[in-house]
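Q: My labmate handed me this sequence with no annotations at all. I'd like to see what the chain might look like in three dimensions before we decide whether it's worth expressing. Could you predict it?
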Amino acid sequence: MLSDRLSLSKSSLGTSLILPWQIDSVVSVKGSFRTMPNFAEGEELVQDVLVGLLDKGTEKRSKIEVSTILEDCGASVQFASAGDYVRFEARCLKQDLFTVLELINEQLRMPAYSQEEFDLLRNRFLAQIQRQKFDTGTQASEALSRKLFLPEHPSFALPVEQLEDLIGRTSILEVKEFGSKTIGLSDFVVVLVGDVAQVKPEDVLHTLTSGLPQRQVVERTFDRLKRMAPFSNDHIEIADRNNLDVRLGHDIGLFRRSPDYLPLFAAAFMLGGNFSSRLMSTIRDRDGLTYGIRSGLSGIGKNYPGSWITSVTLSRENVERGIRSVKDEIESFVGESTRADALSVCKDTLSGSYTVRLSTTSGVASTLLANHEFDYPPNRIDTYPDEIAALTENDVDRAKASHLEPGQLYVVSAGTLQE
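A: Here is what I predict for the chain of 419 residues:
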């Protein structure tokens, strides 16, 4: 049992989870803190810019000097924007652990906020937004999100025109002010997995959080999302894209800790989670209508409900027939009872992929961090396969009947329909 070797420590500074692993001299570090950006006002984009600047030097060291420290250690440090959180991760040798932790602290505590780096980053963002205008998958997914979610939901995607305007108006001062009010000890957690048997949790937390301000965690919880528009089939015309990306979906009014989440996740996986799923074997293999089709749950968090989305690529000639076939197959799947053999295969696949994820220190650390962010107990790293094994056909059927509504699917396509 991994949790038997797991050391959990909580203090006013935050939470540390340390798991010794049978690997010599290597340590994987994962961590996060809560930032709670205002999504409706576009602060998630400001957070993305902030995160992009964290590894571009500090008030004490240039970007090159930071890179030199990491290269000399053979280490890596990365930051990522993740909705309500900013995450950080590192991989290093045991003897360099505290050098790397001190560097992460410095990057969080005193970013350089270089105008030159900001300008370069903003130009990259603008170039990426330009590419998104002609990406059929991105356009279909983001248009669907605006039908399913309120603007303050993390999964709501601003139109590219608004993104362009927002990034164009954002200044380095705004990014600095956002960092000043969000970087700190708000649900701060760090996970260490590897050669860490002699590492003291209090030393890790003190090194990482020294000088960071306390932040108050304000929970934001949404009730079931109200759909923002009448049901419709919408199309986004993009020239010279004869293969269209299509998204079908509706909102799902539950949270990650709901008892229905895991059986509903299993149901969606059986429908379209991998190459042996129902939709792949019918829409692709039997009907020959697509090379790829997926279906699954998205955006369901601790405090946010999410959605059920099916994604398929169809040729222009097969769009109408393909959408109709996908809808028919989904309706058939949801309406029929779950077969024992299909659920058994699903459970074996989910358990097997979970075992693979836990085969590396990085995978274990990521799992422990995710469990913490979702408020699962630390021992869930061991009990999750048991939860999968305990699923019954009745559990899956109840979840399907309660949450999946094939007749209430929004449909958005993007590509070339007009001659």
